[in-house]
Amino acid sequence: MLTAQSxxxxxxxxxxxxxxxLERLGLDYCCGGQRSLxxxxxxxxxxxxxVVQELTRxxxxxxxxxDWLALTPAELVDHLETTHHRYxxxxxxxxxxxxxxxxxxxxxxxxxxxxxxxxxxxxxxxLEPHLRKEEEMLFPMVxxxxxxxxxxGFHCGSITRPITLMEREHIVVGELLExxxxxxxxxQAPEGTCASTQALMAGLAxxxxxxxxxxxxxxxxxxxxxxxxxxxxxxGDQL
Length: 239
Fold this sequence. Notes:
The protein contains eight helices and no strands. It is mainly alpha-helical. Helix 5 packs antiparallel against helix 8, helix 6 (112-147) runs antiparallel to helix 7 and helix 7 (160-183) packs antiparallel against helix 8 (195-238). The termini are far apart. The model has no long low-confidence stretch (mean pLDDT 91).
């Protein structure tokens, strides 16, 4: 049952049809997923009971967990690579180039587009090495941990160390996406701009939604699961 005490992560995982509404309301279900709906509404100065009523009206189908929730940690990292990582590797260069083009054409009349281009470039500069660190360091550690019968003895000591780094980087990207939403007034193209600007705004909205879901899967599902798995192996090895 959806209530003001439901966490944003619970809502996002069990009511995927509500992700668009959470995005529109600015309720952070990825990095801030462990907060209750009431806490998140208070931060955004929203009435939690009204938000619950709105979300309840939008629940057009019975609550159903997302398919990826049934994946094991090893399967989940494969899923992250083939869906969200693949998407970002295609989308980031395209949006970076498009934002720069729109800035050159319309930046004089709409200086906020110059700042949009700079933020998009910063997101790309942050996310591309982030993806490499996950694929080359963290995800292989997850696969090793899943098949281990004793603590693997990682070079960094514990899987929590790269996880902490990834979580910090998630926060930075989340703040940059929030800047984009503010700069563009919710991804609205300024009046009098061209079709390329419309395409940019649609692409940035898609980037925000996909990245929020991507981070939600990692912060609220993958990371707690593998942290608990390592703890169980450590305790078992000490007995």
